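User: For a reading group we're discussing how well predicted structures match intuition. Take Carbohydrate-binding module family 96 domain-containing protein. Before you show the prediction, I'll give you the sequence so everyone sees exactly what went in.
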Amino acid sequence: MKFDLTGRTGTSVASATLKVYCNGASAATPLVIYGFSGTDTWIESGSGSITWNNQPSSTNAVTIGTLNVTAAGWYAIDVTSYVNSQMSGDKKVTFKMQVENNNGATLSFNSRENASNKPALVVN
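Assistant: Thanks. Here is the predicted 3D structure of Carbohydrate-binding module family 96 domain-containing protein, as structure tokens, for the group to look at:
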């Protein structure tokens, strides 16, 4: 998911928290959150849009941390350091959520197209 912070002035923020809403979890599952540098030129729809086959590689990603998703509900992670690393550049931040070693568990998260409980980047 991508957030555009070009409307903010300055080259740093006091705090930044990524919030995501899980609407279904079949079992407790660790969810790794990655931040990307220099790979946020992708678009959601239209010619050249992102797909499973052309998604950014995790090789160029910074591991931000892990959320232990256990049930439906809100989950939050501090992303201040990563956001600040992007504020001196194009001020766009891209996150990837990846389940690793899930043993068949399934997770479902709301997207920005949902009517409620959309993912949010809270910046102060």
